[in-house]
Amino acid sequence: MRLAATASHNQAYAVQGLLCNHGTSRGRKELGIRIPRPLGHGPSRFIPEKEAAARHQCSYLVNLHVNDFLHVGGDPKWLNGLENAPHKLQNLGELNKILAHRPWLITKEHIEQLLKTEEHSWSLAELIHAVVLLTHYHSLASFTFGCGISPEIHCEGGHTFKLPSVSNYCICDITNGNHGVDETHVSPAGSISTTESFCEVEALMEKMKKLQECRDEEEASQEEMATRFEREKRESMSVCCSEDEESAPTRDVSRHFEDTSYGYKDFSRHGMHVPTFRVQDYSWEDHGYSLVNRLYPDVGQLIDEKFHIAYDLTYNTMAMHKDVDTSMLRRAIWNYIHCMFGIRYDDYDYGEINQLLDRSFKVYIKTVVCTPEKTTKRMYDSFWRQFKHSEKVHVNLLLVEARMQAELLYALRAITHYMT
Prior knowledge:
Strand content: under 5%
Structural class: mainly alpha
Distance between the termini: 46 Å
């Protein structure tokens, strides 16, 4: 899959890349501050990044980190398979795979095993640094696949993309993301559905208006709110996040991580019961932020700013509508992702999610967040058909930051339990 390389895609990816570089030498120069890196600046720090990207078979990111690894003098033998890397980095494999696919299974025992492995042990500061890298690059893989970014034609996994023939406006308008109100989308069956997609926007606007009125008139009880969360959590597990059969990763990617058969599974599979993660008991704002900042100075602040930039970003538009308060929609997207990870906000009415997010949108969200390597252009085209590419890229920014925060919450809570 390769989506149109619009200016909006490129701009959003550039923003994400800049945020990603906060911890690098280039990022520190841009920010004018010095950030200590517990893992140092040598080749070792690229291994967690490469492993994280490889878990989702993201050859685009894997290739970037392989090149960076070699550029700073990394031993090429390490790239022949994770078993050739130092034992300390090999030990990170278990945490990497659980974080990427089933973060709710992380316990303080996983943390203890890394911190007490004799000469191959990690320090708390190093582990926090590694967790930040892993969660960021899992999420960046979601952003990469969600926006259809792939290697160039001469690279491994590279693809070509041919712009469509459109008669309504200049092809340069497509590549610049300057779509007008008359923009149409082609359905999977090949039919143009301008009227239908226009009605979808109007219906969504009307639902937002009614939900706001209901908020103003009455508030559901805590018992009802809890019931609605459980209902939405069960419903989210029924959403199929793949259109195709599961395929094994290619040798080029699979050699960079272990246990290639381990992947995403809903947390209720095989009768497994995972307790709800209540944000009022452990939140990013009250707990995770301070722990990261204490063990990895200044980075907690940078991550927090990154979350807020994505969450608060808005043009106050919805397709052809202007001056729209989109906060209700943005919160529904963020909280739906956390709901898929078993994370609950006691003050949120999860009944709003089914009102605002239709089935095709949920399929896209779950695929990008949980199994991004299975994202297809058809999924991208099937939701919000009248919206601009820039608005869909904003959705991807929300998805990846909500995902990163969810992974961080589980990992940091386990570290906190170990420390106490």
